[in-house]
């Protein structure tokens, strides 16, 4: 009996689905924390170093002392070592976990009663949170796939609730904890990266910072120089990178660039064989991504689409949202890379699902941006001070990072590309094509696309997408 190996009060190594093993203490949950649904025994554990809690399956627990040397050898992260030191101090003193000593101890096993599909919540660190407060971790809708997401490690924002949701589905019984990128344990696999544009550059820097072994290639070799100085190696061709690496990521501008990268002379496909894997992170159409997938798999390779939601700043900060479809084992093998690049990664199922999600997201973004630009133009024509308009927006429901940053760009006519307008229009075009294929009417997106096309005709294609404002201020 797996559960019989452990008792309340034991200090253990606990492994959550998306993170390395961490030292924890088995404790009793508070009364308002519901047990996950499922037949497998679970324990509620206290996290040393982060002072958080989570449900963990008994099968993912190991005795602390027995596995200590092995775990320390495989993880040299600063916060990890600090957590281990905190455990050692507790053991030397013969005491219990901080903020956990006053909790009654009992084994937590599944209830025979059916559990409703709701999220249970536990305030952390003694803070109280109103029932209306939003929380940061929720399971995506079941329509997205049974194993839909992993929460990635990132510093918690000051305005985020100290509250975690506990997933009660049978498939996922563990809560994902949001922590620092300092604790990422890089994969031992060699990583290739093709394309060092606005997005690729930020992603590669974060791979290097987190200790990944990276080889880069770019059509303009000079762009590789800074990354080589930072610790990457450089491939002389696409085929050399793919041949030398276990997993190769590609991030280029559009479907034509992807086809050239994969199918062209000295392209990705030339070096694909069993044991090789390719991850396409570009925003393209479903037909192209399916063609790439079929060709990679026909040569015995594994394929994953993983387009990203975010612009220059999130790419630089490692705060992208990754929407993936394809080979599930490859998604799992990319875990540490996704942890480095983003704040959350979703596994959505079959190839094409990630592309569809990205096109929907960017279509909404483009439609909002076009409406925002029109609003700013109307405000100016009506004699309103645009700075005051932005100040009003910041105090209401329009207060979000995109509205703030794009509003400042419009106000000061600073359109350095965070996300080039021509790429936004390309995504609008691809989303509209998807709508045509599915016979879905998209009149708002179609009108927004016309605004982006007009902005391009006015010479704004290489400017930031916020320069669509110039198509309205005439």
Describe the secondary structure blueprint for this structure.
Elements: E1 11-14, E2 22-27, E3 42-47, E4 53-57, E5 61-63, H1 64-74, H2 78-93, E6 120-123, E7 149-151, E8 163-166, E9 191-194, H3 198-209, E10 214-217, H4 225-230, E11 233-234, H5 238-244, E12 247-250, H6 255-263, E13 277-280, H7 286-298, E14 302-305, E15 308-309, H8 312-317, E16 320-326, H9 328-333, H10 335-341, E17 342-347, H11 353-381, H12 386-394, H13 401-412, H14 421-437, H15 443-457
Parallel strand pairs: 9-10, 9-12, 10-11, 12-13, 13-14, 16-17
Antiparallel strand pairs: 1-2, 1-5, 2-3, 3-4, 6-8, 7-17, 14-16, 15-16
Helix pairs in contact: 11-13, 11-14, 11-15, 12-13, 14-15
C-alpha Rg (nearest Å): 24 Å
The major beta sheet can be summarized as: 10 strands, mixed
Tell me the number of helical segments per DSSP (H or I, 4 or more residues long).
15
Instruction: State the shape.
Output: globular
Average pLDDT metric: 81
Which structural class is indicated by helix and strand composition? Answer: alpha/beta
DSSP strand (E) fraction? Answer: 15-25%
Distance between termini?
Answer: 74 Å
Number of strands: 17
Helix content: 25-40%
Task: Pick out the low-confidence regions.
Answer: 96-179
């Amino acid at each position: 009996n797996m559960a019989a190996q452990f008792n309340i009060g034991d200090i253990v190594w606990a492994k959550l689905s998306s993170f390395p093993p961490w030292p924890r203490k088995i404790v009793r949950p508070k009364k308002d924390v519901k047990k996950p649904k499922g037949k497998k025994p679970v324990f509620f554990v206290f996290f040393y170093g982060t002072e958080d809690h989570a449900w963990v399956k008994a099968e993912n627990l190991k005795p602390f002392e027995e596995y200590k040397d092995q775990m320390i050898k495989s993880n040299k992260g600063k916060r990890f070592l600090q957590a281990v030191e905190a455990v050692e101090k507790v053991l030397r003193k013969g005491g219990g976990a901080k903020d956990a000593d006053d909790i009654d101890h009992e084994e937590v096993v599944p209830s025979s009663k059916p559990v409703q599909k709701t999220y249970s919540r536990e305030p952390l660190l003694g803070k109280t949170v109103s029932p209306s407060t939003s929380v940061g971790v929720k399971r995506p809708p079941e329509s997205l796939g049974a194993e839909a997401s992993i929460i990635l490690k990132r510093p918690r924002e000051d305005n985020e609730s100290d509250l975690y949701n506990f997933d009660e589905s049978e498939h996922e019984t563990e809560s994902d904890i949001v922590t620092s990128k300092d604790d990422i344990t890089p994969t031992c696999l060699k990583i290739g990266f093709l394309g060092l544009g606005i997005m690729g550059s930020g992603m590669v820097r974060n791979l290097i910072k987190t200790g990944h072994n990276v080889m880069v290639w770019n059509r303009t070799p000079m762009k590789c120089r800074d990354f080589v100085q930072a610790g990457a190696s450089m491939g002389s061709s696409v085929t050399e990178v793919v041949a030398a690496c276990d997993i190769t990521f590609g991030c280029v501008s559009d479907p034509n660039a992807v086809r050239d990268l994969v199918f062209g002379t000295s392209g990705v496909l030339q070096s694909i064989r069993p044991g090789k894997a390719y991850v396409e992170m570009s925003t393209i159409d479903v037909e192209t991504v399916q063609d790439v997938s079929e060709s990679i798999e026909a040569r015995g390779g594994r394929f994953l689409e993983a387009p990203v939601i975010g612009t220059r700043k999130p790419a630089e900060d490692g705060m992208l949202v990754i929407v993936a479809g394809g080979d599930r084992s490859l998604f799992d093998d990319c875990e540490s890379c996704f942890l480095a690049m983003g704040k959350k990664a979703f596994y959505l199922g079959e190839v094409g699902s990630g592309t569809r999600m990205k096109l929907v997201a960017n279509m909404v973004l483009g439609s909002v941006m076009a409406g925002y630009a029109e609003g700013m133009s109307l405000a100016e024509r009506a004699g309103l001070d645009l700075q005051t308009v932005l100040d009003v927006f910041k105090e209401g429901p329009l207060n979000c990072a995109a509205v703030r940053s794009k509003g400042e760009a419009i106000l000061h006519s600073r359109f350095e590309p965070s996300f080039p307008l021509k790429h936004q229009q390309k995504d609008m075009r691809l989303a509209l094509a998807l709508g045509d294929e599915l016979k879905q009417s998209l009149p708002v997106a179609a009108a927004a696309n016309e605004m982006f096309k007009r902005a391009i005709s006015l010479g704004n294609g290489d400017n930031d997408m916020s320069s669509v404002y110039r198509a309205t201020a005439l």
